Amino acid sequence: MDNNRVIIFDTTLRDGEQSPGASMNMEEKLRIAKQLERLRVDVIEAGFPISSPGDFQGVKLVADTIRDCSVAGLCRAKRGDIDRAWEALRGAADPRIHTFIATSPIHMKHKLDMNPDQVLEAAVAAVRHARSHTTNVEWSAEDAGRSELDFLCRIVAAVIDAGAATINIPDTVGYTLPHEFGARIHTLMERVPNIHKAVISVHCHNDLGLAVANSLAAVANGARQVECTINGLGERAGNAALEEVVMALRTRRDILPVTTGVETTEIMRTSRLVSTITGFPVQPNKAIVGANAFAHESGIHQDGMLKNACTYEIMTPESVGLNTNRMVLGKLSGRHAFKERLSQLGHDLTPEQLDQAFQRFKELADKKRELIDEDLEALVDEAVVRQDYRYVLERFHVASGSADIPMAAVEMKIDGELHKGASWAQGSVESVFNAVKQIVPEASQATLTLYQVSAVTGGIDSQAEVTVRLELDGRRVQGQGIDYDVIAASAKAFVNGLNKLARRNGRDKTAV
Ligand code: KIV
Ligand code: ZN
After folding, report:
1. CATH code, 497
2. Which atom, in ligand 1's list, is nearest to the CA of 15?
3. Minimal CA–CA distance to 343: which of 304, 376, 382, 391?
4. Residue pLDDT, tens place only, 187-230
5. Are residues 219 and 347 in the same domain?
6. Residue 284 CB contacts under 8 Å (≥ 6 apart), including other chains
7. Are the C-beta atoms of 240 and 212 separated by less than 8 Å?
8. Domain residues for 299?
9. 72, 9 in Cβ contact below 8 A?
10. Do 342 and 449 belong together in one domain?
11. Contact yes or no for 90/82 (Cβ under 8 A)
């Protein structure tokens, strides 16, 4: 293996999904996994198979579908976890078992109630058992950032002897500083005699905003795998953001002479997809993928940019997939051009999905003169992802004005049967939601904990994208809707959320 190649291990579907409110269903996970494959990450961690039947199915679906990346599944240092993970992963082109156990004094004493020798024994047994399934075994020392270095060196040597091919050193609680974390990796490289037999990986959390800096410090000291997530999603303050790690390595090759295999022009699309599916917006000033990341506002900056873009731009917007190959479609565009563009964007739809998306395209093109890639992606979301099953919104009507009480009437099919509801509220959106509640009992029982509107593109003629979060009996789902009309988008998002609640998939998880 090229010693200057850094393996990019994406854990958006596992650690990212642990962000409160970011849970995804199987279709959504698969959609993100396919996009990660286009992004050319090396490893996709698809989930934690023992944690729930839904997670098991999600990991299996990703493992059975993805061919160009390794697919990993997380498991504790327990035979049952490992066997369940293997069951989910075995159909993958390159399956990886990822087993972990905590190694810090705090975790060993208070969480595991085990002494260091017992932890070492359990880690070695877990790796040996995982090796009975595959040679592609990764072992993680949870809370390595706060583990005693002597013990860390001892246990790392033991699990490499047991057959672990990748050793992951997480800063689980985001506690370390870059020079300290870099030194930790340096010590492991110096003191563990068999370290050359494994790839050293890092997995940094962002509690102090240092996850990317710590990951880079680790690479400078010999780590050759970085675990990260799209948009920095993840437990608490999140993980190292993939797009920041990858672009830092690419932009500063003069200081860190390493490469990744990532197709950086797919970064923007991946970021948008993850944001749409999880309902986690990207802050405008977020590095690399924020709406302002390449915007130049001040006169001096604009002047400099016009003279030479290098004055204020350290990387081009095109290199992350912004402003590239923008083909504008309009109402005169035909089905062939539409299909062609979707396929260039990586969407090969079935004939029925294409019919549905093309019909929506024509309707939208009547209202909006020019449709760009973001509009098309939104249409595909509707045609493919937001399939509504139990509840189908047929039509609605809202009457409102500055002096009137907003009133709404809706017509919906429930399991194929037509129902009508009407209601009022303080605002138009709420009046539609209340009308839905008249006919769907689950809608009244659920609590709406998030309602968010964003514009798909710039300009007054942008489509609105609405995300709602609904909670019921401990389950939490995100519903999305897109429409030219913000009330219609809201109604679609609400009904989409209700459909997800209706599709109970046993997502109550074992906590990591
Ligand atoms: O943060 C962490 O330590 C983890 C491990 C399970 C790899 O997510
Ligand atoms: Zn983590």
Report:
1. 3.30.160.270
2. 8
3. 376
4. 999 999 999 999 999 999 999 999 999 999 999 999 999 999 99
5. no
6. 290, 291, 292
7. yes
8. 294-324
9. yes
10. no
11. no
- Residue 426 is given by DSSP the state S
**Ligand 1 contact via 512 beta carbon (within 6 Å):** yes
Read off the pLDDT of each residue in 395-411 and give the average, rounded to a whole number. Answer: 90
Is 238 found in the same domain as 339?
no
C-alpha 399: how far from chain center = 38
Residue pair 81/50 in contact (Cβ under 8 Å)? The answer is: yes
Spatial separation of the C-alpha atoms in residues 296 and 319, rounded to whole Å: 17
Whether residue 339 is found in the same domain as residue 448: no
Residues 19 and 108 in one domain: yes
Instruction: Report residue 264 as tokens.
Output: 């950086």
Residue of 98, 142, 146, 147 to mutate, ligand 1, most atoms within 8 A of C-beta: 142
Q: Strands 43-47 and 7-10: what pairing? A: parallel
Q: Name the closest-CA residue to atom 2, ligand 1.
A: 172
Is residue 17 within 8 A of residue 274, CB to CB? The reply is no
| 140 C-beta closer than 6 A to ligand 1 | yes
CA of 232 to the centre of ligand 1 (A): 14
- Our mutation pick for probing the ligand 1 site, out of 43, 96, 172, counting the most ligand atoms within 8 A of Cβ, is 172
Q: What is the pLDDT of residue 373?
A: 79
So what's the pLDDT on residue 277? 87
Q: Whose CA is nearest to atom 7 of ligand 1?
A: 140
First to last CA, the chain: 32
Pocket test for ligand 1, best of 99, 106, 140 (most atoms within 8 A of CB): 140
Name the range with the highest mean pLDDT among 35-39, 313-317, 425-429.
Answer: 35-39
pLDDT digits (tens, 9 = 90+) for 357-379: 898 888 888 877 778 777 888 78
- Asked whether the predicted pLDDT for residue 506 surpasses 60, the reply is no
CA of 232 from ligand 2 middle (Å) equals 11
Q: Is 170 in the pocket of ligand 1 (CB under 6 A)?
A: yes
Q: Please identify, by atom number, the ligand 1 atom nearest to the C-alpha of residue 143.
A: 3
Q: What is the pTM of this model?
A: 0.85
Is 507 a residue whose pLDDT tops 70? no
Instruction: Print burial letters for 300-312: b (CB count within 10 Å at least 16), e (below 16).
Output: eeeebeeeeeeee
Ligand 1: residue whose CA is nearest its atom 1: 172
Amino acid of residue 406: P
Please give the Cα distance from 400 to 407 (Å, whole number).
7
Give yes or no: residues 300 and 265 share one domain: no
